[in-house]
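Minutes, project check-in
Item: structure for the 498-residue chain
Input as provided by the requester:
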Amino acid sequence: MVILTIDLGTQSIKAGLVDYDGTILQISQEPQQVNLPKKGWAQQKPELWWRLTKSVIKNVLQKSSIKKNEINGISTCGQMHGPVGIDKKGNITTEWTQIWMDKRSKSICEEIRNHYDQSQLAQITGNPITTGWSGVKVRWIKENQPNIYNKTKWFLVPKDFINFKLSGVIATDPSEASGSYLFDIKKENYSTEMGTILDIDIQKFAKIYKSYDIIGSLKEDIAREIGLPSKIPIIAGGGDFIVSLLGIGMIEEGTAVDMSGTSTLFVVKKDNPIIHPLVQNLKHVISGWTPFTMLDCGGLSIAWYKDFINSMKEEKISYEEMIAMAEKIPIGSNGLLFYPYLLGERRTENIYAKGAFFGVTLTHKVSHFIRAIIEGVALAVGKDVEIFRKLGVKIKQVYCLGGATRNKLLYEIKANIMQLPQILTNEPEASLRGNGILAAYGLGLINNIKQIANPRTLKIEIIKPDKILANKYLFLLKKFKKMYKHMLGYENEDVHYI
């Protein structure tokens, strides 16, 4: 009873073979890059997604001893909100797709804010308007690429595009539909009113199925190409970070999840959305909602500085060496603060925010900058945790997942800033695990999804806050927020010198 799972990420695409209880048996992975051609733009090619997806499927099958007829279903999750255009013949109309971090639709968000009461729109959508939502991106296509918009029959997000290529079926799920800015949170379907406000055709968006529904089966021609039997059931799936929440066992209230990889998300579980200008809401793949805040450039900030250092020396520095250097520097990096907004921020007045170091002196060395970056990422998340607390959300502990969990220093700092235990799991592939559990439930292989997904089935490490250090970081957080307020809304326009 094995599930073939696919995770279409921003920096890589993975395929995994997962047992019905969430045990990962085998993984294959291929890297990919983000194209950044203009200020605020971030895009990738759907054709490359499909080619890499077929490659990782073939590789994972070759690496495993699992028999192909033991595969009971296919479940896909993926980076969210990127609209892939498909015409009536099934051809891709958007050679380049705006991905989740793309901010070219800023002016459209401003137009909607200027003409409509945002609090009223939030009562429909459960969300503030941001450049991230797929419906806003489609509006940009209509305004700037009308030929593409007109010949597009459907706009599919990345994982729905992969499902379409596998099965020929046009479908989506609530986790993705709720991120379109077209979703009515009361009716749990597309809103005609929001379609009118965005001035786009909601018929171009896929029918909504439950995330664990079987939407179709593997096409014969694709089955032959990737070396699998045809007619394997295809599950609707969900957005990558929502599926990861299932994989980590976040299915009830009282627990938060910190997901740190390229970006950093801080997520809580609620029965209903939290309507607030700084909080975004997406449907869970099982039930309820996942209110969250997002730092677009979390782990990517640390990766950026690593690449920066390595561009100037022949002997390359590793993450482990960087962390060891940072551990020797005292709290606060001798007055150096880092603001990790290198890709802007999902906030009305700060969409084009910039990264910044503040407090640089002649005494600061490379080690101080490394420590400041790690602290800056943690402080930015800590600032968002305060938002949830002020909204009355009670958090007892934080489950942590993502590639950044290898950096124990980061989570020691987060524990002290949040004053909450940080629970690090040994499951680096929560999205693949979540995919497997979701499909097993949809296929009827398991009955109690909560029992299978429970994090107690995973080995964990708990990092607890230290009272003395927590007080020091409380002071540092106040300094961080003070300078943040001064920078809020600042945009560094291109300057041309004569």
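Outcome recorded: The first strand starts at residue 2 and ends at 8.
No further action items on this chain.
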